[in-house]
From TrEMBL:
It holds the Pfam family Carb_anhydrase. PANTHER family: CARBONIC ANHYDRASE (PTHR18952). Keywords: Lyase, Metal-binding, Signal, Zinc. Residues 39-277 form the Alpha-carbonic anhydrase domain. Its EC number is 4.2.1.1. This is Carbonic anhydrase. Its cofactor is Zn(2+). It comes from Sphaerosporella brunnea. Residues 1-19 form the signal peptide. Reversible hydration of carbon dioxide. Residues 316-335 are annotated as: Disordered.
Amino acid sequence: MYKHGIIALLLLAARNAAASCVHNTSLKPRAEDGAVPISTFGYTGLTGPFNWAGLDAANIACSTSRTQSPINLNSSTASKLSTRPTFSFNNVSSAEFENLGTTIEVLATGTTTISGKAFTLKQFHFHSPSEHRIDEEYFPLEMHMVHEAADGDGAIAVVAVLFEIDAVDATQLLKAVTRNIDKIQRPGSKTETAGLDFAELTAHLRNAPLLTYQGSLTTPPCAEGLTFIVPQKPMPLDVDTYRKIKGTVKFNARYTQNEAGLENILELGCKAVDEAKKAAPEPSSSTVESVVSPSASAVTATGTLESTLASTVAHASSASPTTTTTSCSSSQSASPTAAAEDSVTLVEGHHCIAGACVKRPAATAAKVRRRSRWERY
Ligand SMILES: [Zn+2]
């Protein structure tokens, strides 16, 4: 029952995702004309992970869920797979290679069977630096192989492969993938890889200890219910390939989340802000003024953090439309409601919740102007 609820939530939320980690699955199908979608979220400032929930109500889980990815993997947060899955990926002479703006993605096919349940490989894409860490250590590159349940129940499994810089060895699959990477420097562009041979990768997955845990999408809408499988040992990465990938994706790693079951980091951050406000003198009027001012240069560091947190948790708020405080404590309850929608006051180019306004990224502001109230986010 619980699992079905999670999957339903995943289905609902992921359909709103733009070029997220589940692109090319039934949750976020490819465009019929083959156009490469460009992500509307990012990794910097107000489009970044601290404000993903502020970009779209469908991203509520990013700021409230207690089962989020990525995490630091250790003996208390992940378990070793006792029954090893089977992996079978299809070698090809070339594959479509796309720049989604927030990652680079290869369309691939294959099957991974986990405890008798078959999952179909849909695509793999890259994060640099790695999103997951092992015993606190990060790695320069992580590859997410996104699978969808073959029985159509909507379950998603991600094989997350870590790579470490190696002065001698290289993973030939990565060299083949990036052969034409110079042709997809522009978001929305696509090219073809060289021939892809998965034998080296498959051998690694068959021999390395495998860690597993239940997590979430590491991109908006941060929906729960994903099964992660992570080889405990990294594969080799040559410097030239690493530079090619890093130079294209720039930076696309979400910050490390709390352990499963523990409070969402953003909600904890809001509590800390509230406590600090209680302990500190009343902010001067000039500070409040700077938060609501469109002039980014006038925003103080404190104002920026506070307003970003308020914006980030905004869609979790159950505050009534008449609420006028900006306390982060309004984030402690529940799910996106009509009341929460109504508490949003639109100011051209700004995202305003209960009186706190932050400058909205241009693309998002434009989207608000085009959509009706119920389609607003
Ligand atoms: Zn990913």
